[in-house]
Amino acid sequence: MSGGLGEVYKRQAPRPGSRPAAAARPREEGGDGPTVLYGWHPVVQALGNAQRGLHRLLATENAAARLEAEFGGAVRITPELVRPSDIGRLLGPDAVHQGLYLEAEPLPAPGLDDLPADALLLALDQITDPHNVGAIVRTAAAFGVAGIVTTARHAPGATGVLAKSASGGLEHVPFVTVRNLAEALIELGERGFTRVGLDSDAPESLDALTVARPLVIVLGAEGKGLRERTRGCCDVLARIPFSGAIRSLNVSNAAAITLYALGRKRD
Questions:
Q1: Which segments in the chain show pLDDT lower than 50?
Q2: DSSP state of 173
């Protein structure tokens, strides 16, 4: 991409009878619609990922100028200049979009057989809140997790709110979607993975564990925890040792503590 801001980012005048750029709302969660990414970090990371197919980029003038500076004028897709309110109409009034909205292709999804033999994985047992899953993805990217195992059902789509909460982590940690989580854990166990389930009532304390890769950490939904069959597929159940009055944490915080604790012991 060449030329300055005035040459490259031209506001396109609407055709007679046409709607503004933000009139047609794509499906954000599931279905056959595009993956929707918004906000600075998710969009910039997606634009920098050659594996991510791109369809449409909306940007305010300020955001477009920031993108040009970020990529040295070589943005992979020319943005359509819009007002902040145009993006707001697409996403709703509570979305913090920072002037950027991207419609893109879903990333290629690896299978269990595609994962490295010494991988560090997370497995999510029916965690459905997109804010929590997005925060887990961000943490996973920070700790070098090779993949997140989840089911097609009882899991949010990797788009919209989840992508914003992940803050660009989706470009670095793939989802490995399986039909049945318990069967996937059995298969990982047969491949030599140690399966550690996080359980607030477990007799084993997390700080007493010493584990090596390959390793999969299994997290359950808040309130329900791990399902019985999922628990039965773990080699060990462990709890975070609390010393204060509150004896539980948000699942994304629990994931971060567990990854840090087990990684520190391994190193």
A1: 1-31
A2: S
Q: Please name the helix (run of DSSP H) or strand (run of DSSP E) that holds residue 232, with its range, or none.
A: helix 228-232
Walk across the sheet containing 100-104 and list its strands: 35-38, 100-104, 54-59, 80-81
Tokens 């020319």, residue?
A: 78
Query: pTM score > 0.70 for this model?
Result: yes
169, 138 in Cβ contact below 8 A? yes
Residue pair 258/218 in contact by the 8 Å Cβ criterion: no
Of 174, 124, 113, 166, nearest to 146 by C-alpha is 174
What is the reported pLDDT for 15?
35
Report the mean per-residue pLDDT for the chain.
87
- What is the per-residue burial (b if ≥16 Cβ within 10 Å, else e) of 210-230? ebebbbbbbbbbbeebbeeeb
